[in-house]
Design goal:
Elements: H1 8-17, H2 21-27, E1 59-61, H3 70-83, E2 86-90, H4 96-110, H5 114-118, E3 130-134, E4 148-154, H6 157-163, H7 169-193, H8 200-207, E5 209-217, E6 229-232, E7 238-243, E8 249-253, E9 263-266, E10 274-278, H9 280-285, E11 295-297, E12 305-313, E13 319-320, H10 324-330, E14 338-339, H11 340-348
Parallel strand pairs: 1-2
Antiparallel strand pairs: 2-10, 3-4, 4-5, 5-12, 6-11, 7-10, 7-12, 8-9, 8-11, 13-14
Helix pairs in contact: 3-7, 4-7
Length: 363
């Protein structure tokens, strides 16, 4: 007999505590979205009203950083980081076959029986570095997000191979390894554009912790009522995101648009490309010159979607603040120095609410 989802406690236990996730709910024969997943009208994503014309230079061939067009490529990267906080990269050095394997592995992990995934639930997972869950912080969210995920924190190769799920550990590890050089080059280009140069230890401080997620967005019977991920910016320095071909990622254009007058741009999947977005730490370090990208994800009734982000963040105990050289140039520090672990605690202690996470560090 299919479980009933009219009672909120029964739904929460089935989806969250027992580890069935949104996929388990959909697989039970769900024909309409339960009330707990219905978003307030102002949080819903109207596909028809979203802009589809992506600004110029948002797809960047970063292999040209090694050639005569180096300066133009740096300018394109910096312009994207200053405006939308987002761009896509091609010829990035991550093998295209690996990108395909990542999408296959994500589907393999989430297609397992619920009890196989539930071994990685918070509190029972064999390692604090691996967590399977659903939504963002379901215990405090008024409306839940239509998403299941598995999150894997990288410490070293041996721990990854021992504790990460067998269905995805090898490809996820290779994804981190093959993207690291690209991420460092992008950060060097962005900092260099500000007239500064970071030595290896300062780069390592900003990129020292890596976490790879596999996100699964099951088909939704009423996509117009739900969100896959609510509006937020990423807490780290730079995020690398693999989209599949289904689409559904939206980025907000402009920081200061008033509610009701916001423009959201749907980011079309480009085969073989990776999405890069600026996180809160890079906005802080650049004293506000680079903008973390506020973004969200819609659901769809046509097919289940996967995405695979790598969150490149500072070490937890790293102290992060605006670079002193930029404060001297600007004459003002727009953010206070914070310990990244404290920022993380604040970030994961609240439901998604746009870029309000940055208030924690604002002066």
């Amino acid at each position: 007999m299919a479980p009933t989802f009219n009672d909120e406690n029964s739904l929460f236990n089935f989806v969250v505590k027992d580890g069935n996730g949104v996929k388990g709910m959909v697989d039970s024969g769900l024909i309409e979205v339960p009330g707990r997943y219905i978003q307030p009208p102002n949080q819903r994503i109207n596909k028809q009203q979203a802009a589809t014309a992506v600004p110029e230079n948002m797809s960047i061939d970063i292999s040209e950083l090694d050639g005569p067009n180096h300066d133009q490529v740096v300018k394109a990267i910096a312009h994207a980081a200053e405006t939308l906080g987002f761009f896509q990269v091609v010829n990035h050095g991550v093998p295209l076959e690996l990108l395909d394997s990542l999408k296959v592995a994500a589907h393999q992990f989430f297609s397992q029986p619920p009890e196989k995934k539930a071994v990685y639930l918070k509190g029972v997972s064999p390692s604090p570095m691996v967590k399977y869950g659903t939504s963002f912080v379901p215990e405090i969210e008024k409306a839940l997000e239509w998403k299941d995920y598995v999150s894997m924190v990288y410490t070293n190769d041996a721990d990854a191979l021992e504790f990460w799920p067998n269905e995805c550990k090898e490809v996820a590890l290779e994804y981190i390894k093959t993207s690291t050089k690209m991420v460092k080059r992008l950060l060097q280009a962005l900092i260099g554009n500000l007239g500064l140069k970071l030595d290896d230890s300062r780069l390592e401080t900003l990129l020292g912790l890596k976490m790879v997620n596999m996100n699964f967005y099951p088909t939704c019977p009423n996509p117009e009522l739900t969100v896959g991920v609510g509006r937020h910016s990423d807490m780290g320095t730079l995020t690398v995101l693999l989209q599949d071909g289904i689409g559904g990622l939206y980025v907000k254009k402009g920081e200061n648009s008033s509610p009701g007058n916001e423009e959201w741009i749907e980011i079309p999947p480009i085969d073989g490309a990776l999405v890069i977005n600026v996180g809160d730490m890079l906005q802080i370090v650049s004293n506000g010159r680079y903008k973390s990208a506020e973004h969200r994800v819609r659901t769809t009734s046509s097919a289940s979607r996967v995405s695979v982000p790598i969150f490149n963040t500072p070490h937890p105990m790293a102290k992060i603040g605006p670079l002193p050289e930029l404060v001297a140039q600007d004459g003002v520090a727009r953010y206070r120095e914070i310990v990244f672990q404290e920022y993380m605690n604040n970030f994961f202690g609240k439901a998604h609410e746009g870029k309000k996470s940055l208030d924690f560090a604002s002066i």
